[in-house]
Amino acid sequence: MKRTGFIVLMVMMLILSACGDKKETASGDTGSDKAPSGDAGKDKDSGKMALKWFIVASADAQLPAKDKDFVKKAIDEKFNVDLTIDYMPFGADFQNKLNSLISSGDTPDVFYSDGVSSNQYIKDGVAREIKDLVTPQTMPNYFKYWMTEKDLNMYQVQGKFARAPIPYAKDIYRSYYIRKDWLDKLGMKMPTNYDEMIAAMKAFTEQDPDGNGKKDTYGFTTYGGGTNMSMDFPEFVKNGLIGDFIVEGDKFIDTRTDPRVEQVLNDVKKVMAMGVVDPDWLLAKNGQQLEKAEQGKAGIILGMGKNLAFDNNPEGLQLKTKQITGNDKADWQPFHPFAETGTWIETVPGNPFLLSSQSSDDKIKKSVEILDWLAGEEGYLLTHYGQDGTDYTRDGSKITINQEAFKKDVTDNGNFLSVYQWFTPVPDPKVLELEIEDPSITDRDKEIVKTIEAYKIVPSIGTSVVVKEGMDLAALRKRMNELMVSVLFDDKDASKWPAHRKELMTKYGGNEIFAYYAEQVSNASGKTVTFTGE
Amino acid sequence: MSDTTAAMPVKPGKRLKQRTGRKSFWRYRWLYLFMVPGIIYYLIYQYVPMLGLVVAFQDYNLLKGVTGSPWVGLDNFRTVFSSPDFPILMKNTLLLSVYRIIFNMLPDLLLALMLNEIRVRWFKKWIQTLTYGPHFLSWIIVYGLVYAFFAPGSGLVTTFMRDMGWTSVDVLTNSSVFRPMLILTEIWKSTGYGAIIYLAALANINQELYEASAIDGAGRWRQLWNVTLPGVRDVFVLLLILRLGHILDAGFEQVYIFLNVRVYDVGDILDTWIFRRGIEQMQFSVPAAVGVFKSMIGLVLVLGANKIAKKLGGSGIW
Question: Containing H/E element for A176?
């Protein structure tokens, strides 16, 4: 009796857990409701191989129903697969979801990561070795247009060959944007230096630029996500701290822990004391600063992306501000107080894609083929401009977008192409020797691009760096953020920063971490670079 | 039954017992069957996962799994207890938990007592529905509400106070009010729902007791003290014991959502730390060690509290 009871119990347990598994795969995908699971990875009905990718996408993009997703259709037919793409905006939630998938043994075949955490996946063996998988033979397009073997070699860490960068845009469209119409109203001119920028912030706060009779606007807003001081504050660049890391002479500088941060903090404290910075900034999440700007509550923000203030970009600052505030004269124009001396650093190979070590070789091989197709002309055109003949027409190397069809097929379908653009997040097709003719681009838009492209960009450290084994960079950054914010909000001035820096360098291992970074930069550049710690 | 015993004279007592055991099992087989889903649930979701606790004694590696990861004895516990964060985490967790026990159990009881005194039925029902409504909101929404009211720049209350020329309130990013804010939002969210169980206990009190005490000349307060409160005492103690078992869970979801860089010093608790180490940094062994530690403390407290409750004349849990 006892034994039979036990057996019955075990059987029921098995049945239950099998049900549980099935449910998990079904809820794990967003795009397709038919995600066959199983060891062979083959769908019995269609004989198609099921692939699962986990990638980044902007918050406003969403994949449509299967019949409207012409990219999925093209990929599935061309490669005889059933591709399921799961996507999220990059950030803590992305990381947490990916980590949950991996730790529950459900690692996606292909996944996106950032430089630091990819290290962890490589160390844990979650990412497979790709020496024979990512080569000019297996990925001809990737190497033809986007990547050199030398750069790929330099991108490797831990003596393994396990990650490869996503193709990246060499141009940087990082700029401050200002409400030109507000400036005009107050009789001011475009700021060209830091003092004028602060003066504009002050006027925007105090002189009621929107004319509603209330003092409800701020000069500047940004976001801290509840966790950190924002690098959007122009005071970093003002004090020569540009980007995350720079090399000055033969010194390696980690900009956020540098001694000059004392001056940065003092400057920011001064601006905050003037009351011109939106007090919500610390708790605001990424995106909320743009919402404030679109609601006409702030006059200066830092924006990324080439088309942020384009006239006809439906997700952009310019159009949304007009729609939300009902003010047709709203006019966001780019400017940078340090346009002449350096606004940001050159891009280094950015974030990598990784291939799962747990997936079957067939699945990985197929995924690599699809990735290379995305990087090639056919994939690029389909994922950026839609279907040939309907959404755009091609004449030699000239691409002309058919706006109406594009709006109907793409923009109104959750702007879904931007999900597939994760692998080629480069808005300009000039790498492919193509030229884009987009009738929605106005002269004003072209002027914006020209302004931003004229900004001076300073050289980067030239390589991507990895954290020394056993060191905890996350703990250092967390403590650093805590100290910075406490100086900003609780202290009289930033005179405690040198002591804080000492704590970060000694107790939190900054000395070793950054000295190891400097070593890597030395190896990559061939000249000796050192880090001065405490 | 007697035939069987006679045929087997050896150790009749034991046989008999076994027989009756089987027989009664068979007789109540359908009732036992009812238990099966519950038992399976506990096996799968509560007992089997406990095996995972062994990673607390390993240097756990994702790919090697539980069977392949090296054993490290108590190293993970040493890491935890020697961490500079640990005393602060422990203090925050305990304080918050104790606050929660005091300031959540008492309002629940108080509301139940007040509702119990209301004689107008429709009014009582209305109040009850209104008060337990917020229980069904998620913490994300509650945070959204608090943010809408108290955001330092654009919050409704903050703007109003500023416009009136009063002092500016700083609720979300102020160490000294962070814990009270957590407690107050929880009171708002869960008091109505928490009162339900006391209301059930109150409904169980024999009405004759009230009549008898009224005849003896007891007023309302006297009745409350001598009839009502003793009537809910057992439920109160039961809930208290259960809560003590979770004393090192200080409400992860709420704290994680409300936490920001300016209140780390008072708001960072064991569970948020576990989350950071475990999910954000993919280190599983050290957080698992903290989990084991938490469970041990909980177990000791539940056993202790149960014993004390019994000694003081109550019934305890078992």
Answer: strand A174-179
